[in-house]
Amino acid sequence: MAVRIAPRSSRNAVLGAHDGALKIALTAPPVDGEANAALIAFVAKALGVSKRQVRIASGATQKDKILEIDGLDVEAVRDWIGRAG
Predict the structure, then answer these.
(1) What is the pLDDT of residues 70-81, one digit of tens each?
(2) pTM to 2 decimals?
(3) Sign of the torsion formed by the C-alpha atoms of 61, 63, 66 and 69
(4) Rg, C-alpha atoms of the chain
(5) Which residues are registered as beta bridge partners of 17?
(6) Domains of the chain
């Protein structure tokens, strides 16, 4: 799943689509992996999976990231994106 994060936002929220990715606002700063940890926690909670099931496959040091979610089919993730976006 492609995501684009907006760190240091006023709240954690899905902001909608942005250039083919799901834009997610996070309150955490992009320092020492805090935004990555917040992203994983936010997505895991929203999808009802454990944090261990959510992994940053690429883009760990950038705003644009690719997430992999173990244990969910593509339709479940698309359903969440449709509700959130």
Answers:
(1) 988 778 877 877
(2) 0.91
(3) positive
(4) 12
(5) 22
(6) 2-84 (3.30.1200.10)
